[in-house]
Design goal:
A 5-stranded mixed beta sheet has the order 1-2-3-5-4. The chain starts with 8 loop residues before the first helix and ends in a 10-residue tail after the last strand. The protein is elongated, with a radius of gyration of 20 Å. It is built from 6 helices and 5 strands, in the order ααααβαββαββ. 21% of the residues are buried. The protein is of the alpha+beta class and 193 residues long. Helix content is 55%, strand content 11%.
């Protein structure tokens, strides 16, 4: 069994997330789609008058299914360790902003990056923002991008665990506890990927 605090723990964590993303994509998503199709068949067979209780019940079920499918899609993408590599940093941040009150800011050229440094930055952002928003549910966040870094500005103080994560990732906490600075690496020779 791998040591939960050892160097392999991050690898095991990412593998767990990949399995979760796969199940969401391969099983739960299709099951929700099938439920929607079944609901359409029920709706046709009922031929309920508009405004009736049956029509309202079907509309409520359809809305619940649509919300559930969207939530599963978001979780699927946010859990996928290969998200940045597949879709780029901007798309990954967009999916994260569906789960957290987040203004992604203007990313410029960083948005198209799919390299390991961009994936590592997203991993830290995902962990930090999901935990931070869990600790402070009303908190709002904004990302401030520069060519080599991203800062998180927040309406709530940085939890100790998030500060530790930022330091472990080579960043720092400043600005009265409201800004976390994370470096986004560059490839050797100064060129971005």
């Amino acid at each position: 069994m791998p040591d939960a605090a050892g160097p392999q723990s991050a690898l095991w964590h990412e593998r767990d997330l990949a399995r979760i993303a796969g199940r969401l994509h391969d099983r739960i998503g299709p099951a929700l789609c099938a439920a929607g199709l079944q609901l359409s068949l029920i709706e046709r067979s009922l031929a309920a008058a508009p405004g009736s209780e049956a029509a309202e019940a079907v509309a409520g079920l359809r809305e619940a299914l649509a919300e559930s499918a969207e939530e599963v899609r978001t979780l699927n993408y946010v859990c996928d360790p290969a998200l940045v590599r597949r879709l780029g940093l901007k798309a990954a941040i967009a999916y994260l902003s569906r789960m957290v009150r987040l203004d992604p800011g203007e990313m410029g050229d960083l948005g198209v990056r799919k390299d390991p440094a961009a994936a590592a930055a997203f991993l830290v952002l995902r962990r930090a923002l999901l935990y931070w928003s869990e600790c402070s549910p009303e908190a709002e966040f904004a990302l401030i991008w520069s060519p080599r870094a991203v800062r998180i500005a927040a309406s709530a103080p940085v939890p100790d665990e998030v500060a530790e994560l930022a330091v472990e990732a080579g960043g720092r906490v400043s600005g009265g506890g409201l800004i976390v600075r994370l470096k986004i690496g560059w490839e050797k020779g100064g060129s971005r990927k």
